[in-house]
């Protein structure tokens, strides 16, 4: 747990420094004429400077830890089940695989209607 907290602290500090540097570089509009900058809509400047840099936060800080958690949790559970009751482990893995198969088939089936709804909403 301590290692996870230290890793989270280090990754958040690195993300803060990277975000600061990216925002400074993206916000540096000194080469542009002042009249051109005044004509820009505020959203055209805000989006790359604020929103796009903030979107990197998850990829930089949280993605690796979430990947490890997504892999380690089920691996520990299956290992424990194999050690205590191998039959229960096989049944559990088979049920999870069947549920995943059904979920994937439903996702393929509903991809087109969901895409139409998303297109209509935007």
Give an overview in words.
With 122 residues, the chain is mostly helical. The protein folds into two domains: 1-73, no CATH class; 85-122. It contains four helices and no strands. It has helices spanning 2-27, 34-39, 42-84, 86-121. The protein is flat. The model has no long low-confidence stretch (mean pLDDT 80).
What is shown here, in short?
The chain has four helices and no strands.
Shape: flat
Any idea what the radius of gyration is?
Answer: 23 Å
**Which stretches are poorly predicted, pLDDT < 50 over at least 5 residues?**
none
Main beta-sheet annotation: none
Output mean pLDDT: 80
Number of strands: 0
Share of β-strand residues: under 5%
End-to-end separation in angstroms reads 43 Å
Tell me the helix content.
over 70%
Count of all domains: 2
Helix vs. strand class: mainly alpha
Number of helices: 4
The SSE order reads HHHH
GO molecular function: ATP binding
Membrane topology: Multi-pass membrane protein
Subcellular location: Cell membrane
Keywords: Membrane, Transmembrane, Transmembrane helix
Write the layout of secondary structure elements.
Blueprint: H1 2-27, H2 34-39, H3 42-84, H4 86-121
Helix pairs in contact: 1-3, 3-4
